[in-house]
Amino acid sequence: MSARLRTASVPTIECDPATARDRLTAADVDVGPGNTDHERWRAERGDAVAVAYDDKVVVQGAQPTDLTALLRDGGGRAHAYFDGASRGNPGPAAVGYVVVTDDGVVAEGGERVGETTNNRAEYEALVRALEVASDHGFDEVDVRGDSELIVRQVRGEYDTADPGLRERRVRVRELLDGFDRWSLTHVPREVNSRADEMASEALEDG
Question: Which fold has domain 12-71?
Answer without folding.
Answer: TATA-Binding Protein (3.30.310)
